Recover the amino acids of this structure.
């Protein structure tokens, strides 16, 4: 992750603080747009580092956690601190398995038991009840979503489309299944130009843009 991610986060904070909701029926359109930032995997130390810089802006993020059974007590305490500051701690699979590949090999019930329920059982002992799940690699289908909505309020996939922002599906429209657009420079779909277009389009249209990343490497260089 480059310095760009840090700049995007700052933009999202300023935008979120300055925007006001329109009184529309769905109540999801913001006057100046907004950005939702989500982080995946288990880079707790990097997330805490980000918070030391962004805390003064009252920033908020969702941290989608995997490999929870391998987290240290210090990391768990760090995550509990983030949660106490209003951030969401969400699920990302116990072992970060590709959901569709796992289901095809072992069945849906096995996936739910070993990757999902085992994760939430552990997490619910340390955090508020997990209400959001981000699929590793964005891998899912309708059958899996149906089963997962019995356990979670929000499900998140990913999108790597490079099409015009008008046709992108990485905006929150009220649907409880959402797509996030990756903002790591290593992703083949990523470009600074397209990210700028997405931010500008969300700002102009009053949309809520959903982004995801892993960490904020390079923060120390700023």
């Amino acid at each position: 992750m480059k310095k760009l991610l840090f700049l995007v986060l700052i933009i999202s904070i300023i935008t979120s603080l300055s925007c006001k909701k329109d009184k529309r029926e769905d109540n999801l359109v913001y006057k100046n747009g907004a950005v939702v930032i989500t982080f995946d995997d288990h880079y707790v130390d990097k997330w805490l580092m980000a918070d030391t810089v962004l805390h003064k802006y009252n920033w908020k993020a969702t941290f989608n956690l995997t490999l929870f059974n391998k987290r240290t007590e210090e990391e768990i305490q760090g995550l509990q601190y983030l949660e106490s500051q209003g951030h969401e701690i969400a699920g990302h699979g116990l072992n970060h398995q590709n959901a569709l590949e796992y289901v095809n090999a072992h069945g849906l019930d096995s996936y739910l038991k070993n990757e999902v329920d085992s994760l939430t059982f552990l997490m619910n002992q340390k955090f508020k009840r997990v209400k959001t799940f981000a699929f590793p690699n964005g891998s899912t289908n309708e059958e899996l979503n149906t089963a997962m909505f019995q356990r979670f309020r929000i499900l998140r996939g990913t999108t790597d489309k490079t099409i015009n922002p008008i046709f992108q599906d990485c905006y929150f429209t009220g649907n409880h299944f959402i797509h996030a657009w990756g903002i790591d420079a290593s992703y083949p779909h990523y470009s600074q130009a397209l990210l700028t277009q997405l931010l500008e389009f969300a700002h102009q249209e009053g949309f809520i843009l959903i982004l995801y990343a892993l960490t904020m490497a390079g923060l120390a260089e700023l």
